[in-house]
Amino acid sequence: MSNATEFGTTPPDNRPAPQHTALAAARLTVGLAQGIALYLLYLADDNKTWPSTDPYWMAPLALIFVFVPLLFQQAVGTMRARTLAIWIAAATVILAGLACCDIWRQGLPRPAGFADGGEMTFALVAFTVIGLFIAQSLIAAGDAERRIIASYGAYFDAAWKLEIQLLLAAVFVGVFWGVLWLGATLFNLINLKFIQELIEKTWFAIPATALATAAAIHATDVRARLVAGIRTVAHTLLSWLLPLMVLIAVGFTLMLPLTGLAPLWATKSAAAYLLIACGVLVILINAAFQDGDPQHNRGAVFRYAELAAAVVLVPFVLIAAYALSLRVGQYGWTVERVATAATLIVAAFYAFGYAAAAVLSLRGGVWMALVARVNIAAAFLVLAILLLLFTPIGDPARLAVRAQVARLQSGAVAAKAFDFDYLRTQGARYGRGALAELSTGSFGADTDTVNRMAKAALAGVSTTLPASRTDLADNITVYPSSRALPRGFLEQDWSKDGGAPGCLTAAGVRCDAFFGDFDGDGNEDVVLIDEASSASSFFWGTILSRRPDKTWTEVASINGNCAGMLDALKQGRASIEPPRPKWRDWVILGVHVHPSPNTSDVEPCPTH
Q1: Residue 316 pLDDT exceeds 70
Q2: Do 157 and 227 contact (CB within 8 A), yes or no?
Q3: Average of per-residue pLDDT across 432-438
Q4: Cis link prior to 12 (omega < 30° from 0)?
C-alpha cells in the first residue's frame, strides 16, 4: 500500500508544530468566511433582497460557497499551491456554469425570486457532491505523484482519505450540535435560556456549523494513522459481505431460467433493483481488492468471490438493459429512463471490465489486476456523463421531451392518451416549449385535440380525459369476439379506483379482455392485458373479480414472458388448470402462468 508521503512532502503526522498551526488557521479562517457568506445569502433570501431576487446570481453563489471552501480545506497542505489554485478556480467556474444551466433549464423568467421558484434542483446538488468527490480524488492523487494519470494506489489512498474525512466531519458536526443542545437543555432546567436562544439564531448556527466542519477536516487530516485504521476496518467488514452477496447474486441468476422473467417484470422496477445490486457488488469487490497490491494475501474464498462477483455483474447488467429497452419501446423515453440509461452505461463498463479481469486472472495473470485500470477509467467516464447530463447537450428533460413528442407525431400514441401534463411538469423549459408548438401545430385529424390539450397543459389545467361508457367500450377489445364484458363492468365508476388499469380510467388507452375462473369460486374473472404487450414477447395482465356486492375489483396480476403467448390467448388456445390450492394457473402454449395475488386480497374475518 502506498504511504502517507503521497499526499505531500511531509507525512501529516510528522508536520512541525508551526505548519500544523498555519494549516489550522487557514482552514478555520476559510470555514468562518464560508459560514458568514452562507449566512448573508440566507439573510438575503429571507429579506427578498439581491442576490436572492435573481436566481442567476443566487444559485451559483450558493453552490460555490457550499462546496468550494470544503475543497480548499480538504486539499490545503497536501496539494501543491499551484495545483490547488487552478483546481479551485476551475471548480468555481464549473459550479457557476452548472448552477446557471440548472436555473435556465427550469425556464425561470429573470428576475424571478430565488425563494419563489428559483431553487436549484435536488439532482444537481446531489450529483455535484459525487462529481466533486471524484474530481478531488483524481486531482489530489495526480498532484501527489506529479502525473496526469496517477497510479491506482494513489487514487485509492486519496479517495478513501477524502471519504473518511467527510464521514468523520459529518459525525463531528452532529455531535457538536448534540452537545450544544444538551447544554441548552441543562441550562433550561434552571430557567437560563440564553444558550438555546443563541443556538437558534441563524447568525450563530450557520457560521458555527461551517467552523465545526473546518475543524473536523483539519483534525482528520493531521491524524493520518486514524484515517488508515478506519479504512482497514471498513475494508475488512465489507469484504466479509462479498461471499454472502455472491451467493445471493449467483442463486438469483441460476433461478431465473426456472422462474422466468415475468415475476421480475411485474415489479415494474427491475432495472432499478438490478442496478442497485450491481452497485453493491462493485463496492464489495473493491473492498476485497483494496489498492490492488499483489502482496496482499487475500484468502481463496475472497479471491474466488471477487471472480464470481465480476462474472455475475454481466447478466445483471444485460437483464437491466433489456428491461429498460422494453419500457422505452412501449412508453418512450422519460427523464428517469434517460438517467437509468446513463447509469447502465457506467454499470456495463464496470461489468465487462471486471469480467475481463476475471478471465485474465484465470489465464494466469495477476489476480484481478485489470480492476485497477477499469476503476480509473470509470471515474473519468462518470465525470463526463455527469457533465453531459447537467448541460443542455445531454439534459434528460430535453431528450425525454423530444422522444415523447416524436411518439405523438408518429402516431405511436394516440392524442387522447398522450400525457401532455408530463411535458409541463417533468420537461422543464423544453417541455413548455414543446407544448407551445403543439398548441398551434397541425396534426391532421387530431389537430383540434392536440391544440386544445397542449393549451390546457400550458395553463396548468388537467388534460386527463375521463373515460365514459362509450370510451370503455372503445378501449377494450374482448376475446373471443363472440363474448361481451359482464353486465355492470362498464357501468362501474373506475375513476375512484386508483389501482385500475389505464383503459378503465382514461380515453384512448387500449387493452384486451379475456375470461377465466382463476380463484376457483365458480364465477368468471376478467383479465385485462395492456395493448402495449402486443409489441413484446410477454404480457402484463390484471385479474378483476366480482365481489358479493356486484362491484368489480383487482385481485391479482398475471404476467407471461414467452413469445406467442398473447397471440395464443387471442386465438383461444389457453386453458385454466388448478394445480395450486387457491389460484388456478393459466396454461398457454403448454406453459403454466401463475397469478400473483394482491397483498390486499385477504380472507374476510368470520362473522358472529
Answers
A1: yes
A2: no
A3: 94
A4: no
For the chain, the farthest-separated pair of C-alpha atoms sits apart, in whole angstroms, at 93
Burial class (CB in 10 A: 0-12, 13-18, 19+), 407: middle
- 172 plus 41 within the same structural domain: yes
Alpha carbon 174 to its chain's center = 26
Judge contact between 290 and 238, C-beta under 8 A.
no
Strand partners of residue 540: 559
51 upstream amide cis, omega within 30 of 0: yes
95 and 34, same structural domain?
yes
pLDDT of residue 112: 42
Which pLDDT band holds residue 451 (cuts at 50, 70, 90)? very high
Does residue 559 sit in helix, strand or coil? strand
Q: Which of 266, 289, 291, 210 is nearest to 32 (CA)?
A: 210
Closest CA to 34 of 3, 67, 59: 67
Same domain, 488 and 531: yes
Amino acid at 349: F
Domain boundary among 363, 389, 415: 389
Same domain, 435 and 479: no
| Helix or strand holding residue 588 (H, E) | strand 585-588
- Same structural domain for residues 118 and 139? yes
**Alpha helices by DSSP H, 190-268:** 194-199, 202-221, 224-259, 262-266
pTM: 0.79
Q: Cell numbers at residue 256, please?
A: 431465473
Residue range of the domain that includes 411: 396-458
In tens, the pLDDT along 111-137 reads 444 333 346 788 999 999 999 999 999
pLDDT at 595 (0 to 100): 85
Rg (CA), the chain: 30
| Closest by CA position to 379, among listed 348, 345, 346 | 346
Q: Left, alpha or beta for 364 (phi > 0: left; psi -120 to 50: alpha)?
A: left
> What's the N-to-C CA distance of the chain in angstroms?
73
Q: Model confidence at 180, in pLDDT bands (50, 70, 90)?
A: very high
**Helices 17-47 + 202-221 axis angle, to 10:** 150
Burial of 101 (0-12, 13-18, 19+ CB in 10 A): middle
Looking at the structure, tell me whether residues 15 and 156 fall in a common domain: yes
Lookup: cell for 509:
388507452
Q: Residue 26: pLDDT band by 50, 70, 90 thresholds?
A: very high
| Domain count of the fold of the chain | 4
Helices (H) and strands (E) in the chain, counts: 19, 9
Beta-carbon contacts of 261 under 8 Å, excluding residues fewer than 6 positions away, are 319, 538, 561
How many other β-carbons are positioned within 10 Å of the β-carbon of residue 507?
Answer: 18
Nine cell digits for residue 298? 487475500
Gap between the Cα atoms of 18 and 21, Å rounded: 5
Nearest to 150 by CA among 379, 317, 387: 379
Question: Do 14 and 51 belong to one domain?
Answer: yes
The mean per-residue pLDDT over the stretch 357-383 comes to 91
- What pLDDT was estimated at residue 557? 86
The dihedral built from the CA positions of residue 429, 433, 439 and 443, taken in this order, carries a sign that is: negative
Provide φ and ψ at 108, rounded to 5°: -80, 130
- Sign of the torsion angle spanned by Cα atoms 109, 113, 116, 118: positive
Closest CA to 354 of 383, 377, 320: 377
Cell of 9: 512532502
Mean predicted confidence (pLDDT) in 201-228: 87
CA 497 to chain centre: 29
